[in-house]
Amino acid sequence: MPDAAGLAWAMVQRFMQDESGVTLRDDQSYLLEARLGGISRSFSFPDTPAFVRAACAPGATAPHRRALIDAMTTHETLFFRDAPFWERMEQTVFPSLSATGRPIRIWSAACSSGQEPYSLVMMLEESFPELGKRTEILATDVAADTVDRARNGVFTTLEVNRGLNARRMVRHFDSVAGGFQVKATLRDRIRFSVHNLVAPGLDPSDCDIVLCRNVLIYFEDERRRQVITRLRRAARPDGLIGVGSTETLSLRSLGPGWYANAEKEWR
Amino acid sequence: MIALVVDDSMAMRRIQGKALEAMGYQVSTAGNGVEALAVLGALTRCDLLLTDWHMPEMEGIDLVRAVRKDPRWASIRIVMVTSESDTKAIESALAAGADDFLMKPFTADTLAARITEVMRA
Question: From the CA of A231, how many Å to the nearest CA of chain B?
Answer without folding.
Answer: 32
